[in-house]
Amino acid sequence: MIQTIGLAKSFGSRRVLRGLDFTAAPGAITLLIGANGAGKTTTLRILAGLSAPDAGSTLIAGHDLQRARRHALASLSWLPQSPSFHPRLTVAQVAAFHARLRGRPLSAVPDALNDWGLARFLDMPTRKLSGGLRQRLALAVFALADTPVLLLDEPGLHLDPEWREILQDFLTIQARRGRTILMATHLLGEWEGRVDRCVLLSEGRSAGEVPPDELRRRFQDFHHSSPPPAQLVSATA
């Protein structure tokens, strides 16, 4: 489970988060939606331990991120919007490094790479990977962590439609296994009916929820403005 209470964050004079409260439950895919600048990526980076909030608290799988940082971060796997790897390391070397880092057996590496279509690229240096292959390597590393909480920022951005569908199936399976999944994406139409909750962020706060089966109809609205209050359901529903 993920829970944020009164989360606040500013960059200079710009206030990005203004007392953000929301939860993401185990066994569900929760989508953060909102206009550019609403605070989605900032929220995910705070949850991943990459940025410190100015105020508020966060619980990751029952661990307070500030008071029990090591346990909280060990409970999650983070997929950033633009993953990067050492350019001279091969696909196999990167995966093996992350497996050791997470205490996973090296025997888990071949299956993880094969699941994301990377078996033919084991010896390829990461600097030669296309954007799609790089994203699939990031997803293989992400899956290797085998944690109860999964955080993803624009995971389908560099994937073709076939691999975006595979990603959706993967996350659905992980949710069914009881994992907590929190994601931000602009590809809202593709996730209609594939997520459990859609939490709307507006001006750094939770502004309620959007029904997951109406993402396609409202897809254009999310790019330009927040839906009017009448279109929202309660954030606590």
Give the helices and strands, then pairings:
Layout: E1 2-11, E2 14-24, E3 28-33, H1 40-47, E4 55-60, E5 63-64, H2 69-74, E6 76-79, H3 91-101, H4 109-115, H5 131-144, E7 149-153, H6 161-176, E8 180-184, E9 197-202, E10 205-209, H7 219-224
Parallel strand pairs: 3-8, 3-9, 6-7, 7-8
Antiparallel strand pairs: 1-2, 1-4, 4-5, 9-10
Helix pairs in contact: 3-5, 4-5
Task: Describe the fold and architecture.
- The protein is of the alpha/beta class and 237 residues long.
- The protein is built from 7 helices and 10 strands.
- The strands form 2 sheets. The protein has a 6-stranded mixed beta sheet, sandwiched between helices. The chain has a 4-stranded antiparallel beta sheet with strand order 2-1-4-5.
- A hairpin with a 2-residue loop joins strand 1 and strand 2.
- Helix 3 runs parallel beside helix 5 (131-144) and helix 4 (109-115) crosses helix 5 (131-144).
